[in-house]
Specification:
The protein is mainly α and 192 residues long. It folds into 3 domains: 1-46, no CATH class; 47-107, no CATH class; 115-191. The chain is 38% helix and 8% strand. The strands form 3 sheets. The chain has a two-stranded antiparallel sheet with strand order 1-2. Strands 3-4 form a two-stranded antiparallel ribbon. It has a two-stranded antiparallel ribbon with strand order 5-6. Strand 1 and strand 2 form a beta hairpin. Helix 4 packs antiparallel against helix 5 (133-146) and helix 5 runs antiparallel to helix 6 (160-191). The longest helix has 32 residues, at 160-191. It starts with 13 loop residues before the first helix and ends with a helix.
Length: 192
């Protein structure tokens, strides 16, 4: 990249730039004070080790980079940056995004069942049909205890929903026990 003269925009000669911090323009003769990095004056730029040379395969997504493998699914050449390993197989980012080939077997965990929400909704929803609370109360307690150690969500959550669900389930169970005992005691009093 040539440096232009500050006055006439004519490119300054390189031999003037190498000699010091002053360069005289060959077009208008004006002196220019110039400080350049030596890399600008380098005749040949060093070749990057990952750059594709003439006749070598280049990456499909990065044409200036040398290919290190080809995608097992679609056959595209990929560079070291794009190569995604699945055991002995290599895939390109497009096939992984599409979920084709060996990338289909990858278990990406994008969602989870929120067991704490299920445990909380179960006893509350059964209140609409209150006779079902005889079943959902104990079921909620058992379900909450079984799923207590399961992962809650992909984002941080707390187990307070399980605690509330267990409390509601025990409350429903206690209400049914109290109700049954009350009616049994009342019927015994009525018979005597």
């Amino acid at each position: 990249m040539p440096l232009p003269c500050a006055r006439c925009q004519t490119p300054l000669p390189q031999w003037e730039l190498v000699s010091g911090d002053r360069a005289v323009c060959t077009g208008c003769g004006s002196p220019n004070r110039v400080r350049v990095f030596p890399a600008l004056l380098a005749a040949e730029r060093p070749v990057r080790p990952d750059a594709a040379a003439e006749g070598e395969a280049a990456c499909f997504d990065h044409p200036g980079k040398r290919a290190v493998a080809s995608c097992r699914q679609c056959g595209r050449f990929v560079c070291q940056l794009c190569a995604i390993q699945f055991g002995a197989d290599t895939c390109c980012p497009s096939c992984v995004a599409a979920g084709s080939g060996p990338a289909n077997a990858v278990n990406t965990d994008t969602s989870r069942i929120l067991y704490d929400s299920v445990a909380l909704i179960l006893p509350l929803a059964s209140l609409v049909f209150w006779p079902l609370t005889a079943l959902t109360g104990p079921a909620t307690v058992v379900f909450s205890l079984m799923k207590w150690r399961r992962p809650l969500s992909l984002v941080r959550r707390f187990r307070w929903r399980f605690v509330v669900a267990i409390a509601i389930g025990l409350g429903e169970l206690g209400a049914w026990i109290w109700g049954i005992l009350y009616f049994v005691a009342r019927s015994k009093m009525g018979n005597s």
